[in-house]
Amino acid sequence: MDALIQIFIMLANTANMLVIIWFIIGLLFSFNVIGRDNQFFVAVHDAIARLFEPVLRPIRRVLPDTGAIDFSPMVLLLLIYAVVIVLESLRPI
């Protein structure tokens, strides 16, 4: 049971890192630090976006429209952290 919980925690931490990377690349695109002609960053950004879009879509429906700022990745990070806290409390000592 402990090994299974550790695997889920590791997957949650990986998802957190991917969301943060996706957010940072999006900011770099927004402030023109990296141009959209850089195919590597465009491919990484699009791959992560496709990965998390099914999870973010319901969150976006619940959140109020804030205009240009998308708070759904932050809500997803908070939900993942909450799951990690619950899983860590289930781990045997």
TrEMBL record:
<dbReference type="GO" id="GO:0016020">
    <property type="term" value="C:membrane"/>
</dbReference>
<dbReference type="Pfam" id="PF02325">
    <property type="entry name" value="CCB3_YggT"/>
</dbReference>
<keyword id="KW-0812">Transmembrane</keyword>
<keyword id="KW-0472">Membrane</keyword>
<dbReference type="InterPro" id="IPR003425">
    <property type="entry name" value="CCB3/YggT"/>
</dbReference>
<feature type="transmembrane region" description="Helical">
    <location>
        <begin position="71"/>
        <end position="90"/>
    </location>
</feature>
<keyword id="KW-1133">Transmembrane helix</keyword>
<feature type="transmembrane region" description="Helical">
    <location>
        <begin position="7"/>
        <end position="31"/>
    </location>
</feature>
<protein>
    <submittedName>
        <fullName>YGGT family protein</fullName>
    </submittedName>
</protein>
